[in-house]
Specification:
This protein is α+β, with helices and mostly antiparallel strands. The chain folds into 2 domains: 3-106, Alpha-Beta Plaits; 122-221, Alpha-Beta Plaits, CATH 3.30.70. It has helices at residues 18-38, 72-80, 82-88, 140-158, 188-193, 200-210, and strands at 3-10, 52-56, 62-69, 101-106, 127-136, 163-167, 176-185, 211-221. It has an 8-stranded antiparallel sheet with strand order 4-1-3-2-8-5-7-6. The longest helix has 21 residues, at 18-38.
Length: 223
Amino acid sequence: MTVTELAFFVGASGPVTAEGTEVINQAIEVQTEWSTRNAPSMPQGRENRGVSFLQQIEDPSVYLLTAHWASVEEHNLCIAAPENRETLSKIPPYFQVDKIVYFHLKDVAINSTSGKNGEISILQSPIISVGRLTIAAEKRQAFEQAWNEVKGILEEFVKPNVVKNGWRLEKENETTEEFVLVAGWPNLEKYRDFAQAKDFERYQSVLASFAQTRDLKCYRRIL
């Protein structure tokens, strides 16, 4: 099993400066070097590890860091490493530490495609949408069945970009689950046009009928 880290950051006073972005860049480099030393069987290098740093379009003070790990335990070992902790100590002037939220998804490779000719991976997409849906725990199976019936609507619309989805591994409570939906887009216009697409209402009705809360935002990659 591999897991994908999603870590959300909020700027200390709006969008971060180039210096703040460089601190994240240094942290990424430290973690990449740690992975090379301690997890040699895993894909190496930023692109192969699904590493990216994204800036939200709706609120440019919000950022998203992604990376692939062999397991949650491996990621936690990296976090605890002295060299990583030293780098992370440089974050507070640029980001609100108390608002950092991170979790993992199982087997959601955002740096890969199905192998079909011409497909564009999520991390190579100019625009990346991230949807977070809260689903009642007892409705997870029913939602998965309904989602499988309508996900093709979105997948067909975004081609040659791709769609990935998965469940948050770390539960906030026992009564709800979080479903995360990530898609690549060529531009914001295409993203906005989806609301006018054929069968969009059927797609939307499934999400609306199950989701207790929904949060959908767009990002651009900056690292």
